[in-house]
Structures are given as structure tokens and as C-alpha cells.
## 1
Amino acid sequence: MRIELKKNIQIKQMEFVGEVDFFEESPYIELLKDMKTEKDLVSELQNKNMPISAIKNIINRFEDLKVLRDGYIIDVQSGFPEKEYGKYSFEYFENDTSKPFKFLTQDIKREKAVSRNSADNILDIERNLLDFIIKKNSIFKTKKEFEIIKIENRKGLSKDITEIPLELIYDKNEWKYQLKDKKFDMESIDFNKIFKGDWDEEYFSFKVEYSWIKNMIDVQKSFKWSSDFEKYSVAEYGNFSVKFEDIPIIPKTEKDALEWFLSLLKLDIEEKNRYISKDELQQLWINLKENKPKFQKFELNFNFKTILNQFGRESKYYWLLQAGIDLYPFYNRLIPKEKIIVDAKNDADLFEDLFEKFHIAMPEKLVIIDRWIVNLEQFKALEKLIEILGNPETTIITQSIRDRKSNKLIEKIITRNNIRKVEKNKNDIIHSRYWIFDTDKVYQTAESLDFISLDKECINLQYTNFNLFEDKDLDPKVLALLKEAN
């Protein structure tokens, strides 16, 4: 993940008269080292090819400072103290926001020595700039440490020198800012400021609407998003051009999650390009949810009709999926003793009315063989089913619970309803589902418990069927599991 925020800032220059402590010996002390007379100084400056006019200026300055008197060099240390009074030019970076900085020093230069009585105006500059430049060091020339002791007046106004880019960069889990190809540490920016409050701390991801990425299949698959913006504002940091690279993303809402999930599931279905049974379809659903952990934040329960609607009746995949229900190839060679077809659009809404079709009284025992009773919604449906049937002695044969986040709630349902739960490996449980009432009525169904919707006061049913079989028609695996249950 990388973020680049870029804007231009101003380099400015200000001239002032005042006193500066450079925390170092004056360069003039080094120049006058081992010299005793004016003649020695002139000879040295001539050897440096300095013009006569410049030599005269230096001689006049040293005489003003009383370092040169009557042709002799005297009292050098007092004449050039660490704290120097003179005219200086001060360069600084000016940002339009306080973060990551308002001002930064670039450099300070000695212009010339002046008499203290020339400081006849108080410097009129904004207070926060004045507070900044006092006791600040250059970020570029760290050897030139200095402290501005006081500013008494200036020669002319501050002037703009040039603009340079300021870049705020997030890379390798840290923030830095960059000026003139040099990077400096900075405090971290809250990602909620960067992503306008849509940052998921738990999953370290940008929350996005599905409509943003609807046509970006690679982004949907990778859960990573990249983009550039010419104008982008960040609270407290100002306006930038911005470049986002490989930003981790997550659905913003449950609706976005479902649309995103169905889009990826649709790709899996199209890739197979064949008949898919409902069991296999549900396994594709579970595999996708497990392989994309960010979907696990949302309640995405398997729903056959929702998947069909993703394609529409004009698509061949609609009919390939529907054929898995119509034909049900796992048992199409068997003729059930009784076949009950349930369609919520045409049949009674209440689940109690459905059992009138089964021609059964309230059972004393209920055994359900279903490898997919693995999450909280299915256990809630199971509890409702047990209540409707008058609380029969209930046994379920299934695999281990997958919904680990809701494990405690599931265990409460099991305890509250005295459910006997027999855990088996998935492959040891028959592919289809069976509901057995009082050991003698064995119904095979195409649906797991999640076809029961608990969204309303009653339990609504989607399209499904229940087929009553005799023992002789049952798969030996079913008989073995029933024997274990009893």
C-alpha cells in the first residue's frame, strides 16, 4: 500500500538586522589566526585574489569592530563573538497549513556587519513566523546550527524565491515528507482523514461502495484499489494531487458485500460452465466466503433464488442452476413414495401448515442429517423448527461449527433445546439432507436449514421439495448414520 500526496509550497527570503548565535567560531577568527598586523591581513587576502575594493571593505569593518587598530590586529575573540550582530538573509519554506509544518528553515546567510544604531525599526512580521524562526536550525545544513537571538529591523519585505513540491508519502507502513529529494520523518496521518471517514480499522481497509468497482473485476478479486486524483483535500493538511496504489478495500455495507460476493460467485459459476447441483453451489458459496476473509464481516447466508436472480432468466446459467433443482441428479433414478413440493409464492407461509402436507402428527423424535448446519442462522432456524414440532427429542448429524464468531450463541441454542449433536467429517456425511420423523418417515430434501428465512414473524419458504423414501431405497451411508443416531 502506497499513498502519495503532492502540492507546491513557497520558498521565501527575508532580510533582517539582528543578533544570531551560530554555535561556532566566526570564520574571521580562523582568517586572522596567527596574524599580527594589517600588512599580514592584506597579503593573505591578496593571495586569495580578492579585489582591492573588497579588501578595503574588510579593513574598514575590522576597524569598526576595533579588531584592527593602528595597523595591528588585537582582541580578535571579543571582536567576533559567537553571537554576531549584523544583517542577515533568512530563507524558509512556507506551507499553507500547519501540518506537517507551517514553516521550515532552509538556510541563513551573513550579509554584512552593521552598527547597532542602524536598527531603528521593529520587525513587523506575523507572530507565528517570528516564533518559528527564533531558535530554529536548518533542516538541510545541519552543521550550520544557529539561534536567532533577536530581530530588530529588516531591509525590504519578504520575497518569494521559488516554488517546490512538498510530498507526503505513506510507504512500508510509515509516513514521511519529502523536500528537494530528501525525506524526513513525520507524524502519522489518521487514515480516516485520508479516506473521509470510510476506513475500517479492524480489517485495515478502505470501505467502498460496490458501484465504484462494479466494472473492475481485477479489483473485486484482489481487494486492492488504485487511482489518481488531481484535486484532493485532507483535513488539516490542505489540498493535494494524490496517487493511491494497492489500497486494501472492503465492502462498505451489507448490500455492497452481497453484490460484490455475488459478482465473484457468478465468475466461479461461469467458469464451470455446466450443471451445478444445489449442494455444489452451496459449497462454492462457502469456499468463496472462506477464501475472501473480508466477506466474513457480513451476514451473507446462502440463498438460491438470489443467485438465480444474479443471472436472470435470459442467461443459460440460470437454467443450468435451476436444472440442479428440477432434475436433482443424485436421486433421479429413485421413485419416492411421496413428493412434496413447496413454493412460498403458492403455498401457505406458515411452516406449521407445511406439515399438514407431510401427514404427520407431532413427532417424538427428530433426526436431521445435514452436513451444512454450521452457522448461527441455521441453528436459529433449527430452534424454530423444534418449537413448531412440539420440542421432540432432536439429534443432528453434521460437521463442526464454522461460524466461530457466533460459537457461544450456537452452544446456547444446543443446550436450551437439548439437541444431541453428532459431529462427523464432512466427507463421512451423505451429500443430500435427510429429515427423519420417529425413525420411520425419512424425507430427503434438496435444502439445508438456511432455506428457512427468519426475517419476518412467520417462516417463509423458498422453492424446495421433500421426498419420502422407504428404507430399501436409502443409501447405505444414510442407514449407517441413522443407526449411529439411534
Note: DSSP finds 16 helices and 22 strands in the chain.
## 2
Amino acid sequence: MSVRRDPRSPFYTFNFQIHGCRFFGPTKKTTRREAEAVERQERERAKALIAQAEYARTSLRLDDVAGRYWTEHGQHLAGTNLWGWLGLLLDYFGKDKLLTEITDDSVAKLVAWRRGHRVRGLVETTKLISPHTVNHVTTTLRKLFTRAKLWGVRFEHEPRWSKHLLKVPAERVRELSDDEADKLDAAMRDDYRPFFAFAQVTGWRLDECFLRWSEVDFGTGQITKLGKGGKRINVTITPTIRDILVASRGHHNEMVFTYVPQRSDTGTIVPVSNRRPLTYAGVQTEWRRMRKRSGVVGFRFHDLRHDFATKLLRETGNLRLVQKALGHASIKTTTRYAHVLDSEVAEAMERVAASRKPSRMKIRVVR
């Protein structure tokens, strides 16, 4: 089935593969017939993108550049909604817009257009999308420019990207309590358990946790892949991580983490042999459902990364070690977790005070 409706939303979504490339996204339609019509259009668009990949070598049309970028790089970024963000750019600029015609003014108007979009949900809402979400479409356009420069394209007036990124509130640090951890564990589906366990023990971001077996090297004891910003990240296969990987062996030839689909009409589980790779949208949906079942509130999937960092810092007291584990380029980013050491600092201060000679520490009370 290439179109389906999420129980939490009135809209259908499409999900299909062509020549090994996966395409998915919302149809914004509430009836199956309309959704299937959108899905057919998306299929034709996807076929055109793949067919145009070779042509894009000499074309600067946005549609051609996006197609080549998707074929060469984007389709391999497991777990992201890049296809949807590329679609937004094509919706706004039009497929015939030349990449070299996009200026600072063009990007400013794009950002203003995107800022007017509202959060989609089960019911009508007046809540606007966050600055972080707005920035996604800007950074996606920037990636097209960066990729085009690798192809030899030169821009006389490339947009000044930093001027168009909206300020994002400082990221909060949320730690999981033992009681909350127990509740989430009790509410967790067994087929999703290896994925969530891997996220907890590595502190990797959501899109970084979609592992391919080709990225796992049992010989060297390392997992290596591309992370945020195309930066190479790696983690040692500890005994705990090895157990997670071994439990996932044999489920899929390419992807490590999979799930057992449930039939939407009966709610029954299909045979394990029909396991499918986890997707970015699927994990987000199951996370929301699991959180609701557990009763844990105010805890996002990304907070698993914060939880990992705070517990690692509390265990080691070493900010540099935490910086390396999280893959932060600057120690300044890691210092957001420094509050974890406040109690240790207070205890150290008290030990220093206690070590001084009593005569020097005697407090005289003046009356």
C-alpha cells in the first residue's frame, strides 16, 4: 500500500520506491481517491527526477539540480525529510527557476513565505512553525548551492546564508529520571527496542541512528557514518552495542534496525519475515505514541542525547570526553552540560576549606 492515513492525522501520506530510491511525504488530502491521485503525480515527478539526473550535469534549472543532488547524495541520507524540503523549494520557486538567479532577496522572501506556515496536526491550529523548522528550507537550498559548486558552478552573488537563518532559542537540557525511564521501557514496543537502546547508549541524533550494515565493522570494532553537516562520526562497538547489533542480525540485508508492521484493519502483527526498515517519520510517530502510553511528558527524542551527555559527564567529570562522545566541534557547545558538575564543585570547595588550618578558618563574631 503506497498511501496510508496516520490515525493521528486526517491526511493521507505516500510512500514508494523507484529504482531503489525511496520517496515519501504528505498528500494533504483526506480521502483515499484524492491521495492516490497525488501519489500518482509524485511517482511521475520522482521518475522525472531520476531520469533528469544525467541531464542536470549541464542544467542549472532548480528541478534538475535538485534531481541530481537527490540521486548523488540526498537519497543516501537515511532518516531525513530532505525529499519534502526539496519539494517545498520547487513549490515556491518553480522547477524552471535557475539556481544562479536566486539572490539574497529571493532567499529573504522564501523565509518570509515559510514563516507564515502553520503546524499541521489532527485539528486546526493557529500555531506557526518554529524558527528551527523554517531554517530547514534555507539550509536545504544552501546544500544545493554547495553541491553545484562541486560540479564546477560559480556564483557571482551567492546569498549570504547566515543573514537568513532565524535565531533559535537556546536548546534546553532535559535528563530522564529513573522513574521516567522505567515507564518508557514498559511502554516500548519490542521491535523498536533495539533502535531506542542504540540511541540511549550512543547519544547520537535521530537521523544518525538509522544504521546500514555497511557502516558496521565488527573486525575493527567501529561504527562509522556521516553525521550532522556531513561530518564523519564513529563509535566503538562496546559489549552493549554488540548485543544490540547481534539481536538485529538477519532482519534486513541493508538496514540494521527494522520493525514488524501491524495490519491497520485488524491490528494484528504480520510475520517477522516481513520486517521493514525503520523510517524517520515512523520513529517519530512511535515515539509520540510510546510517550503517551507511558505518561512521560515534556521529553523529546532528542532529549535522549541530553540524557546521555549529562549522565556521562556526571560519571566521568570530564567535559572533553563528553565533547568527543557527542562529536561537538567546540567545547563551548558541550559546556551547556556543565551544571551537572555544580555539586561536585561545591563538594571540592568544602574539602579545600576543611583542609585549611583551624586557626586560619576561625570565624570571629563582632558584636
Note: The first strand starts at residue 3 and ends at 5.
## 3
Amino acid sequence: MNKPLMTTYARQPVSFARGEGVWLWDTQGKRYLDALAGIAVCGLGHAHPAVTKAVCEQAGTLVHTSNLFTIDVQTRLAEKLCGIAGMDSAFFCNSGAEANEAAIKLARLYGHNRGIERPAIIVTEGSFHGRTLATVTATGNASLQQGFEPLVPGFIRVPYDDIAALEAIAASHDNVVAVLLEPIQGEGGIRVPDAGYLSAVRGLCDARGWLLILDEIQTGMGRTGHWFCHEHEQARPDVLTVAKALGNGVPIGACLARGVAATTFTPGSHGTTFGGNPLACRSALAVLETIEQDKLVERAAAMGEYLLASLRERLHGFESVADIRGKGLMVGIELDRLCRDMVAQALADGLVINVTAGNVIRLLPPLIIERGEIDIIASTLAHLIQNFQTTRT
């Protein structure tokens, strides 16, 4: 199966043929409730009419010209996205990894411009920032780095959600130029930091002249009940990376910046062939407009509260459930042992989920989800976890 493809994925033996809203159908006609949304990508669900219309119209008009020329729809997208995010300028690329790569290069250039010969960026344990050589180095997961050494120098790693560790680095290093972290660690197991952590990091960056770079690739675009997760604490970054849900499945990423960070790149500093092409930008504009018009940020907040309450009610007293946590429609159920087989078991029951960090069921349903569909998620998972609990070995 899939012999022409490199074996970079341990794929499930299911192939989806079509989707509509929160539902997917496989090639055999079986229906599944999608509680993963392509790993936080399809925030508007599948085959959303506004995105479909925008992509079809743009594909019939102009798909690509390159960034050697002004791209009108790219400029309009930059203005709208920066306005929503409170940022000054945008660089468009094709993925979250590329957005983080741009942010890392920007931070290093910022440091060199300040006379720092070997600038360092602080990153955290348990993080995930991408699969390029620089972003996998920044990622706090040794198993993802194994075999790809030598890794990229210039990163200092500290525990997540530990402001004292950051302060210790500030006292012992004079070449730090930035802190890069996720407001909630997604791949790390839906790890939500303590209240005040992000604002404390913001304050330390201000005091030290460091850039605060927030990777909102998974948490952004309304996922946590705000447009961006840092808004829960008013910890506005200097550099903000987004992707995933920005195009609702059409590949696009963005590195947004404000203040001095917004003017650090100059012509020739960075570039991309495909990034910000008319097709991707038109899709992203349709996504932003739909989120605004349909009040999906507010919906994510309300539906997220309902999802958490439903799970806590149905899973109350389950000994195998260590924790249920999250913000908005980004929820993790931590079990007391490895539970990777739960993905296949959920598929058999018509539910698409994911397990991350080995023992955390990750739920990232589309923002358009309704209460009845959340009830299906909660009841299905309660059944699966009950079976998991009774088959302890």
C-alpha cells in the first residue's frame, strides 16, 4: 500500500473521498465525525461554500505570478490579517514551518543589526515548531531530531511554563535576541501554561530588548476562543506566526511582525517562490471574512466550554483519566498510560481524533461544530475510554 510514497507516515488504513461541514466519508461510503479538522486546519469544516467559491473564481482568473510583482490580493490579505492581529507587516509563505523559519531568520538578523555576533533564541521543552532543520532544532522533542545531527546552533532550551528558568538565562547570557514559544503546546500534549506566564515572558522581553515570537500556528485563527491565544493575557508578541487554519486547507503561512521587527527584513533578506500567491491569498481572505461574518471566534469559545463540560461530566470518576484541559476548541484528555491504539478504535466508531505526546487524546474540531455533534464526540469517547479502562494490562 502507498509503495510509491516515502514511508514518512504511519498512515491509518482509511482514505477519505469527500467532506461536508464536520463530516467525512471514506471510499467505502462510511461517515465519520471529524474532531481533528486536518490537525486544526479546516476551521470552517470541509467544502465550505465561501472558500470553494473563492478558490474556483481565483483558479479561473490567476493562480501564480511570483513575488517579483505586486499581488493585489496579497496586499489586501496583509492589511486585513495585520489589522486583526495588531501587527504592522506580513511575510507570506506556504506552511507553518516556513513561517517559523522566517521568524528565526528575522530574529537572527535583528540580533546582528544590534551588533550581536552569535545571536541565540530561547525555546522550550515539549515544543513543536516544524520539520525544517532549524525548526526541528527549535522543537523540544529529541526523537524528532534523532538522525538529523548536526543540528542548527543558536538555540537555548528551557522548561515550558517556567519564568524563573527564563530569568536565569537572562542573568547568564548576553547574546539572547528572542524567545520563541507556543501559547499552548499542541503536539506537546495540549499543555496550557499557568495564568500570567505569557505576560511575564512579555515583560522580560521588554526589559531585555528581546523579541517575543509566538507560534500560533495551531492556536490561532479563533481556535481558543480569541483570534489569537495570546489575547487571553494581552501578551502581544513582536513576531507572530500563523498557518494551518488560515487557508482552510489551501497551503499558506504567515510571519507577522510589528515595531522594529516589522522593518528588519529588507529586499533580498528572505523570499519564496510560491508564498502569498493569488490562489492561497484569496482563500485566506475568504476564511477571515467568514470567521468575522459568522462570529466563529465567539462560537469557538462557547462550543469549547460546552465540549469541556460535556467531557468532564461523562468522564467523571474514570480512574484512567488524569486530566481534561484546553481553551476553546483545543482540548486534550490525558490518560494514565499510552493510548495510541485509541485512534484506530475511534475510526472504527466513526470518529476522527488524534493522540499526541503518547497519552493525550487531542480534539481540534471545526469551529462550526454544533452541540449535537459535540455530544457525539463526548459519548463516543466515554465508550472508548471505558473500554480502555477495563482492558488494563
Note: The first helix runs from residue 37 to 40.
## 4
Amino acid sequence: MFTGAPLVSGDFDGNGAPDFAWASGSGVNVVRNANGNPPLLSQLSVNSTFVVGGEKTVSATATIGDPAPAGGAVIALSSSDPAAAFFLSGSTVTIPAGSTSATFDIGTGAEAAVDPVSITASWNGVNQSASFNVIPSFSFSSVKLLSPSLFGMFGGLNATSATVTVSGPAADGTVVTLASSNPALVTVPASVSIAPGTTSATFTVHVLTNVQVNTPVTISGSYQATTASDILTVLAATDTVRITKAEYVVSKGQWTIEATDSDLTNTRIDVLTPGGQDLGVLVSQGGGKFKGQGIFAGPFTSVVLQSFKGGTAAGAVSQK
């Protein structure tokens, strides 16, 4: 609405309900009130955004502003592509007298490519439209890990992501079931949803603990009758970490920790509570020595260190 353009109210369509109009540039905008006698068609909705043609039907609902008059409201229907979207009960739907809506089914035809279709409902001089996409059949293609190998990490702080992919745009409600061949070591969500119209979705893979030897774990996904998988190898630690100082100033809630690492190329050691809460990091001081400070509300009586190279160390924290 342009500034200064007056809003005018009046029953422009003669159905006994006030409508609204205002000037806009060289034209006039009119908003018709769907209530009244007779009422107007107020909405057309569908329950799908992407549907596989030839396999699924779409449910649609036509709504009017007030209860339909005696004899009902006979709504005319049309499709922008009758081969892709067609009406299973004919080219009209009747809203019964006293009701405000009626639902009808739309059949779909097989498609070789994504086909955006629009259906239109018409009654009492008003048209309402709704759109959805009829898509080709698709299949489950792959599971792919971002990192094929990871060191184990205390508390499950070590993680990578994985992507599931389908062969074409996904339909509404596409859910891939996930599994780990060793859930005590590596966990994944129970499932991941692929957004309608897209071809992939990403989920997080957590390593729960360290291993003594490199351990392969299969991460799999299943959709309909197809299963795909990838392998994550959980690596054994390549270094040894030792705690040389661990103090906690209770009044300040401040910890100070120092440690050494046998791998002089390591650059980081994480500081964890025994329950796996990440409190901060120790920074390399050179020569395999590490130091760090942080704030924690406590109590803090024991600590676990986790090296970027996989080594761990646990010990008591002295109180000051």
C-alpha cells in the first residue's frame, strides 16, 4: 500500500460482507471478504509438495468463507497438466450445504523429470490455486563418510559427518534408516530425513571410546528395499599422554592443568570431566609440554585428558 492511499471499505461484490480497496500506482487493489451470502472461495490447499508420479495421490481441500448455501457449493476444478495431475472424482467437487470445505483426491502420472503442476478451484467468481511437484521415481544411492578414519575419544567428543544420497529429488516423507555395526563404539541416529525436492541429507557419527587396535565399523543406511554403507575405521592412539599438574581453586572455580605428550607433533589436548564434558584445551608449549587454564563451576576432583592423536590420561585434581 502506498503512503497516503486511503483504505476504502464496501460490499463491492454484493454478497453482504465488507470488502477493502486501495489505490496502488495506476491501479486499484481489492481484497474480497470470503464471508457473506453467498460466501466466496477462500482457500485451496494440498497435502504434498513433492510426490512420485504414478505411485502416490495428492489430497486437496477447497474451503469457502461461510457455510455453503442450500444445494451446496459446486466447485469447478482444473489442472495445468492433466497428464501429470488429474481429478479422480471428476472436474468438480461439492461442498455440502452447511459445510465450509470438501476434500478430494488428485491422481498423478509417471514423469521423466520434475513437473511443477498447479490446480485451480473456481466458484462464485473467485479462483484459488495450489501447486505441487510431480517427480520421477527415485532410489537410495549411497552413504558417504566425510572422514573415513578417526581416533577414538573419551565421552564421544570425536565425531564426523556422513551423507545419504538418493538418485533424484526426494518425495515428502523420505526417511532413511541408519545403523552402526558396532553401536558400543560408534553411534548414529536411528534415521535421517531427506528434505522434499533435495537429493541428500547429512547426519553426525560419534565415536564413543578409544580402541587398542584400529577397528573398522560399518555405517549403513536403508530406504525401501535398498541398503548402502561406508566404513569408518576407529584408530588406536599413536601417543601417550601424562598429567604432570592438575589443580582446582575452589573459590574461583578455576582449573590449571599441565601435561606431556610423547608425540611432539601433537598440537592440542582436550580437558574433560569423567562424564565427558568438554572444559577446554591444553595448548602446546613446545617439546611435548602442554598447559591450560579454565573456569568450571565444579565440583572438579578428577580429570580426563584426550590428545588430538588419540592418547588419554586420567587423574585426580588437587583442591586449593
Note: The mean pLDDT is 90.
